[in-house]
């Protein structure tokens, strides 16, 4: 019965995840159509090259690959870090009871609801040479060209769009914390800062870690925002996804698949490491075990606050 119930989900995962992954692995072992160096004739089929595409990634095309790799890692670390800080602040604001809270919640969530393509075009207009950004800083900066300012433009646009996502998940975690925990802390004389560090943060950590994990996996696959905001083949903002797309657009499907496989392995390792290090805080506990741990965490938080 269990196998029967999960079979539809397994079928969907096989079609949309497993099959494309296998085909990408297979495609990465073939070269591009064109002149066969051995025979001198034009090849009508993709020649089998084995691991040559991967050798080229870390060899001939190594400089461009490592530049895209570090750009991807830099964007992930910086954007997810800023989004976590801003998202937690948003969640705390949305959790407060005050007049007009529904309007504030709706306005905070609007950026996340805007499609990424629209968001990229919007920020491209803001970062234009005669746009709002230059008017605010009082300088003429070419934000959407090469340079570190292009990275800053992508980071600002990405944080603006996806910080509400973390805020929404953290808000869900805040709403399951019982009010009696805070009442007991106030009776013990705990300040708002101690309540945050010893009660709110430990009890909301599972929801926060899930949000950070989702954002890390999404940021590692960043493509559309830097592509629309700055453009293709810009070394300052080129990511691994953009590199794979560029190879595919030039009908080099083998190298493109190899880049995609490398990115897949990178994302997989980050996800496995995240779950391995954080364990139950990410995957969750079942039934009574989870409730016992929450009760122990709540009791431990009250003891720490009292101390």
TrEMBL record:
Tell me where it resides: Cell membrane
What keywords is this UniProt entry annotated with?
Cell membrane, Membrane, Transmembrane, Transmembrane helix, Transport
**Taking the first listed entry, what is the main subcellular location of this protein, grouped into a coarse class?**
membrane
Q: Which Pfam families match?
A: BPD_transp_1 (PF00528)
Q: Which domain of life is it from?
A: Bacteria
Task: Give the similarity note.
Answer: Belongs to the binding-protein-dependent transport system permease family.
What is this protein called in UniProt?
Answer: Sugar ABC transporter permease
Organism from which the protein derives: Streptomyces scabichelini
